[in-house]
Amino acid sequence: MQYALAALFTLALLYLIGLLASFVVGKKLIATLEDWVSRLPLVQTIYGAIKRFLQTVSQPPVKGQRVVLISFPSPEMKAVGLITKVMTDTYTGQELAVVYVPTSPNPTSGYIEVLPLADVVMTNWTTEEAMSFVMTGGTNAPDTVCFSNPPRVAASPGQ
To answer: Would you give the DSSP letter of residue 155?
Structure first.
């Protein structure tokens, strides 16, 4: 019984050492490949931009929900988009949303739209759900969605 436990413990220890080594070696290999890519002029520009975009999309949004609907390409139609940044208009102080609208079936290509944050319709979708929606051409859409913002309540007199 002791020999079996010793053998099992040894195997588990060797497995953990191998797992740790693979993470270290794997990270060093990726870092080396990225260093090589960073030395190629045109490739580095494209690779760097895609890497920054994917890092931005994978992080939680700064303000509100990241997945939104915007009126695009016409006021009667909506497109799924991802808020990548919120800016402020220099003259009016109005908040503006920078929205990336991915195209189907390849979400790495798309459009960048800048529009008032008030015109953006927030959804309760995760980024993964939105990407799946885009890549499948909308076939896995939820049964319900907020197509427009709720009506604004006017302030009553005296308030």
So the answer is: P
